[in-house]
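Thanks for the sequence, V.! I ran SIR2 family protein right away. Repeating your input here for the record:
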Amino acid sequence: MITWPDEVITSIARRRSVIFLGAGASMTSENSQGRKPPSWKAFLEEGINRCPGSKTEMKKLLKNGDYLSCCQFIKYKLDRDWVPFVEDQFLTPQFKPNELHKAVFSLDSSIVLTPNFDKIFDNYASAQNQNLLKIKKYYDDDIPRVLRGSGNQRLILKIHGCIDTPDKLIFTREDYANIRNSNANFYKALDALILTHTFIFIGCGMNDPDLSLILEQYARSFASAPSHYVALGGSISTEYNRMLSSNYNLKILPYNTTSHHKELLDSVIELGIKVEIERVNLTASTLW
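Predicted structure:
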């Protein structure tokens, strides 16, 4: 089980946290036919299969781990078939929320950031929160206002866009380059969150170029600043742990990945219990 630091529990209880929900959180979701959301690699493999003409260059990029360039080539080759392909992978299947989505929602964090294009968590949270939930994308011009929030408002910020608007998804190397210029103010908002809130990364790795850049700047600019946290499964070397700490000011919260990452789910459920206890204590002490 994950040993949750007091800072994580207190930050969530005080609603001074940002839950960063990665693609791994959706991997156990299914639709009515038992289909699961594709992994990044599986999505690219299917895209390559659908492309006309030579596939050699794309397969080489995929093999070398250059997923962003591979995706860009697929988008070029599919042309007008690109949007239908993306919708077929993330929208049409109608994936249902899983227990981890529900456990994360139960933390009642005022802000959830996600790079996920799917609407699995969004739909579940909307059904529970009714009119109190705002879902915003990186290109919305009222992000500064909604980040201020209110006592009962909750926010899901989709930092790479949503499948509802597939033409605005941040998916390829070209997309990442464009967004840095066209939506520079969005990154200023993320910088503010990094400084003022505790980030807890669930279901993700550190392979998002923009997120890595933001965390690197934070770590370099504020060497003595409080750490953020990432839940990671599997074997983690001392060197990798040190790299995340030095480059991103991240502390690893390790867990066992057996039984489809059940320990992560159990740990988030336990975290929810600890957060509720802390909120009761805060109410009694009035030290908000």
